[in-house]
# Entry
Amino acid sequence: MKPLIFPLCVVIGLGGLGAQTPVWQPSLGNTQVPIWPGAVPDAQPVSGPENSGPDPSGKLIAGRTSVYIDNCRGPR
# Structure
């Protein structure tokens, strides 16, 4: 009986993979409406790409290295 438990678990685990849909679909009776059907309103150019990485100063915070994010621009 014990040798059959692992293969049974594998079959049950993999059996549900075929039933999954690759893309979200709205429930019956509902439709998906795009947020911006055309161009994004008030789109503003960004001066360059967003950068992130380990803090170049090498300072530790709570004994760990920190990460910085540069050139992120959000709503003002």
Helices lie at 2-15.
